[in-house]
Amino acid sequence: MKNIAIIGSSGGNLFNLGGKNPRKLLDEIKNQCHAADFNIAAIQFIATEVSMDQAKADSKTSLFRMDEEEQITQTATNTLEKINEQAKTIDEQIAALIRNQTVDGLIVMSADAKSANQQTIDAAVEKNIPIVGTGGTSMATISTKGANVIAQSGTTGTTNRTRAISFITSLATYWDVKYKPIIGTANKMDTENSGSIWKNINIRGIMVSALPGFIAMALVLALSKIPIFSGLQDIFDVMIGALPIIIAAIAAKQVSNLDEVSIVAGVVAGVLSVDGGIIGGLIGGILAGVFVHYFFQKCIRWKFPMTTVNIVTGGLAGLLAGLLVYFLFAPVALFIGDGIKIAIESAIAFNPILAGLLGGLLIWPAILGGIYHAAILPIVLLEMEQTGVSFLGAIDMVGLVMVSAGINLANMVAPREKGEAAAATPGFLINMGFGTFVEAAYPFMFSNKIVFTGAILSAGVGGALVGLFDIRGTAYVPTFTTPFLSDHPLGFVIAMLASFALSFAVTLIANKKKKVEEEGVSA
């Protein structure tokens, strides 16, 4: 196992590119060390609350170091002048470790080779250990001392994760150590070691993450119907065009897990994927994420400077993905999206009541079977892409949210057992206040077949009314606002009240029946 030491500071330019969050910066390096089976023998990192370019002797500063239990610790805040004095003590200790051959390599970030880190750098030069690092000025100074610098770069365009991967890749290559970068967050480091990038593609996760953008669009549409806000119709049109970009950015981020770099690539790809609608944005974002992953690894192996790595990764990956969608996939994506919407409209046109009834009856089995988020929600978003509202979105509110609210309210008013009222209250408040958390009804549905059947029937009745009034709407917003976000407020209110009242009544009857049966048994 190779031992490394980490030295430096939150820096000038580095401060704005991750240095102001030293804990995360050091954790990223620690995660990548874990993947390469490297041990961090020592840390001396000076972190100020301002950029070093503006720091003064009395600037608030703290010192990060490695304690005896090999945990990263932070000292109490003090002035930069006093922390620098403390840092010199650690500088001596790390220099001793290098001379004793306890430290095999050095990671340097915006270090002070003439003062706070002078002894460590001198020892590294003496023992010719490999050094990797960032910070144009500091690395130039270190190089002039004759240090064995195997990889160096400025900080422009880099992130905590890309820097950490670059550091460890360079050291692993130098020592001929097998290393696969960890792509993921610190708490997932044992499960997200980069194997196949394709495993990161999760359409359900991408669509759910994009939902706030669609709700924002629906709110703008609703406000635009008010005469005083009629000018918002132009804003609504702009937001429709932005939806593929939102989805592409999310997709690229989730697929590659490389933070800002992948987001930039996703945005570039999304801009070029707009003509393909949200499916085009989805394809562009996924491709961008895949390209980011491979471009990043290749550039690191080719020992490009980190700034160049990020430019290639974020810019060219997004551009290539976007151009593929623009010239190749956009027509196909638009055809598929339009085809799904046409199929839904055709079913509604054939028999709107039957379409609504079937949608309502099937929506609970769909969410219980895991189909809702994988299939129905993406279709809802496809419908909303053009009009801001959705037929299935209205069924969602009526058949899921209002039914759940009815079940929860019944258990608040007449619970079957003590304690159920307290359990139902938070669910009811979230159902009504936020238009979500239908899972709150699960305990009551699963414990009573009558309640379960009543939920499905209530959703079916509500869905049939949605079809009868030909309603388009949405969920995931406060319940009292949903009629105003629909194209038929009165009809939506009637459908919502019907499913709510029916599920409430069925649950009351089921609870009373169960209570009578239990009292009879006990007697």
Give an account of the 3D structure:
With 523 residues, this protein is an alpha/beta fold. Helix content is 63%, strand content 9%. The chain is built from 17 helices and eight strands. The protein has helices at residues 22-36, 80-99, 118-127, 136-144, 160-175, 203-224, 232-256, 260-273, 277-301, 306-350, 352-368, 371-387, 391-413, 420-434, 442-446, 449-468, 489-522, and strands at 3-9, 39-48, 60-66, 72-74, 78-79, 105-109, 130-134, 148-153. Strands 1, 2, 3, 4, 5, 6, 7 and 8 form an eight-stranded mixed beta sheet that branches. β6 (105-109), α3 and β7 form a beta-alpha-beta unit. α2 runs parallel beside α3 and α7 (232-256) runs parallel beside α9. The longest helix is centred in the middle third of the chain and has 45 residues, at 306-350.
How many helices does DSSP assign? 17
Report the count of strand segments.
8
Helix content: 55-70%
Structural class: alpha/beta
Cα-based radius of gyration, to the nearest Å = 29 Å
Oligomeric grouping of the chains? single chain
Mean pLDDT: 88
Shape: elongated
How much of the polypeptide forms β-strand, as a percent range?
A: 5-15%
| Gap from first CA to last CA | 72 Å
Order of helices and strands: EHEEEEHEHEHEHHHHHHHHHHHHH
What does the main sheet amount to?
8 strands, mixed
Low-pLDDT regions: 186-194
Quick take:
The protein has helices at 22-36, 80-99, 118-127, 136-144, 160-175, 203-224, 232-256, 260-273, 277-301, 306-350, 352-368, 371-387, 391-413, 420-434, 442-446, 449-468, 489-522; strands at residues 3-9, 39-48, 60-66, 72-74, 78-79, 105-109, 130-134, 148-153. With 523 residues, the chain is of the alpha/beta class. Strands 1, 2, 3, 4, 5, 6, 7 and 8 form an 8-stranded mixed beta sheet that branches.
